[in-house]
Automatic annotation (TrEMBL):
A Gene Ontology term for the protein's cellular component: cytoplasm
Pathway listed: Carbohydrate degradation; 2-deoxy-D-ribose 1-phosphate degradation; D-glyceraldehyde 3-phosphate and acetaldehyde from 2-deoxy-alpha-D-ribose 1-phosphate: step 2/2
Lineage, broadest ranks: Bacteria, Bacillati, Bacillota, Bacilli, Lactobacillales
Keywords, in A-Z order: Cytoplasm, Lyase, Schiff base
SMART domains xrefs: DeoC
Biological function: Catalyzes a reversible aldol reaction between acetaldehyde and D-glyceraldehyde 3-phosphate to generate 2-deoxy-D-ribose 5-phosphate.
Entry EC number(s): 4.1.2.4
GO biological process, one term: 2-deoxyribose 1-phosphate catabolic process
Species in which this protein is naturally found: Limosilactobacillus coleohominis 101-4-CHN
The reaction(s) this protein catalyses: 2-deoxy-D-ribose 5-phosphate = D-glyceraldehyde 3-phosphate + acetaldehyde
UniProt family annotation: Belongs to the DeoC/FbaB aldolase family. DeoC type 1 subfamily.
Protein name: Deoxyribose-phosphate aldolase
Localization terms from the record: Cytoplasm
Pfam families in UniProt: DeoC
Length: 217
């Protein structure tokens, strides 16, 4: 299977150097990946580098804990938009989700979705499935779909576990019939694992092992 257009080619390590960012940008362009997914600091550079190609620029918002205030998440999103980002991957307020404060979770997400969509940007919401029960995964996915976000996403890759087929299936079932799709991210290392996530319902993959997945590593 051709995985290239499923892939958000990801480099979010805190110690990522400019040389490493240059490398993932070149890999994304050469292999026609969907996006380069980087931290906000590198958005302007990446946007300039991918201009005129079929690769988009994506970054994370409120990463990796999701515990920023809504005002800061919106400001961070707007700054990325100003710097040329195409897609925003925000982290849900996980603590409020675990507290059962669903209205607060929804309002936090909605604010970023509204800011992104006002600028015609794609917005994904990371719910950090490894920290949620099955019922919470379902509920969080339903909240994300209610806000009109473009994707609900499994994981930051910075917590206790990444994407699982089980979580992707739960998420896919929860958003069925909505305009929200599913992104699997974190811990996907091989073509077999990538295919399993797609079979479970994911239509986008967040991976740092992209070259291995497409058989070029």
């Amino acid at each position: 299977m051709e995985f290239n257009k499923y892939i958000d080619h990801t480099l979010l390590a805190p110690d990522a150097t400019e040389e490493q960012v240059d490398t993932v940008i070149k890999q994304a362009i050469d292999n026609h990946f969907h996006t380069v997914m980087i931290n906000p600091y590198w958005v302007a550079k990446t946007h300039k580098a991918v201009a005129g190609t079929d690769v988009k620029t994506a970054c994370v918002i409120g990463f990796p804990l999701g515990a920023n205030t809504t005002k800061i998440k919106v400001a961070e999103a707007q700054d990325a938009i100003d710097n040329g980002v195409d897609e925003l991957d925000m982290v849900m307020n996980i603590g409020e989700m675990k507290s059962g404060h669903y209205d607060k979770v929804e309002k936090d997400i909605q604010a970023v979705v509204d800011a992104g969509h006002a600028a015609n940007k794609v917005v994904k919401v990371i719910i950090e499935t490894c920290l949620l029960t099955d019922d919470e995964i379902t509920k969080a996915s339903e909240i994300v779909a209610k806000t009109g976000a473009d994707f609900v996403k499994t994981s930051t890759g910075f917590s206790t576990e990444g994407a699982t087929v089980h979580a992707v299936k739960l998420m896919s079932a929860a958003v069925k019939g909505s305009n929200t799709a599913v992104k699997a991210s974190g811990g996907i290392h091989s073509a077999e694992e990538a295919q399993a996530m797609i079979d479970a319902g994911a239509t986008r993959l967040g991976v740092s092992h992209s070259m291995a997945i497409i058989g070029k590593e």
